[in-house]
Amino acid sequence: MCVIISPMNTIISKRTYQAIYRLLDMVSPVDFDCGTLCGAACCVCAYEPDDVDFHAEGDENADNYMGLYLLPGEDQIFDMDPSSKDTDCDWIDWGYLQAEDYEFPESWTGKVCFIQCRTAPVCRRKKRPIQCRTFPLAPHIDENGIFNMILHCDELPYECPLVTGYKDGSIALEERFIQATYTAWKHLLMDPRIYDLVEMDSELRVENGFDIIIIK
Ligand code: SF4
Ligand code: SF4
Fold first, then answer.
1. How is the chain split into domains, by residue range?
2. How many angstroms is it from 95 CA to the middle of ligand 2?
3. pTM of the prediction?
4. Which residues of 46-57 are buried (b: 16+ CB within 10 A; e: fewer)?
5. How far is CA 59 from each of CA 35, 45, 75, 145, 167, rounded to the nearest angstrom?
């Protein structure tokens, strides 16, 4: 099935993010804890200099860190107020990057929320970001504007056994996971900024000659 997504002038609301999180809460890439295969490589792989304190807006050292940026508006899911009694964020360090200083699409302006997990691989599972929830799949838009979920193929500082296992046929990904990640990204792509990011990443993959394996 070929699906061409036309982004609407939509900002993904907190309610939509919550619905997407709920949908993705119900699925996993495989029916066992894949962290046992690799020591949760995608969570614990981190470079954190000892001499910097990352818990502040606009931290100038943020580019020294391994971490995750949130999608536009995804920070509404979290209570980022350090003085809050809510413990939503007691497992992450967070800050805001200036989009223009990094390789984001031109449509990304202003602050981009960036988080690091303090207690990885343990986290508040219901709060883990979209990036964690849909890995090892990635959204891809080809040169004809057709949207697919593909096997993650961008360069990573670790090897994911689900990716290698899928390629050699020793691991199958759960159908429900594939369908849910597809549905989630189809909604997310309605935001033109998210669409631009996915389109930019997709173009880079093609330019770099990465092996694009379409899953759905
Ligand atoms: S997604 Fe891949 S890298 Fe992450 S824990 Fe599972 S097998 Fe390991
Ligand atoms: S939020 Fe959770 S799943 Fe995601 S990288 Fe951090 S520890 Fe891993």
1. 3-207
2. 16
3. 0.87
4. eeeeeeeebeee
5. 31, 21, 17, 36, 39
List pLDDT tens digits, range 162-204: 999 999 999 999 999 999 999 999 999 999 999 999 999 999 9
Whether residue 194 has its Cβ less than 6 Å from ligand 1: no
**Model pLDDT for residues 108-140, shown as the tens digit of each residue:** 998 888 888 888 888 888 889 999 999 999 999
Amino acid at 25: D
pLDDT at 65: 52
Extract the tokens encoding 215.
């899953």
What stretch of H or E contains 198? helix 192-207
Among the bound ligands, the one closest to the CA of 124: 2
Q: Kindly give the distance from the C-alpha atom of residue 127 to the centroid of ligand 2, in angstroms, as a whole number.
A: 9
122 Cα nearest atom in ligand 2: 7
> Cα–Cα distance between 200 and 167 in angstroms, integer?
25
Write the CA distances from 173 to 18, 33, 168, integer angstroms: 24, 13, 13
Overall average pLDDT of the 44-63 stretch: 50
Ramachandran area for residue 110 (φ above 0: left; ψ -120 to 50: alpha; else beta): left
The Cα–Cα gap between 17 and 188 comes to: 9
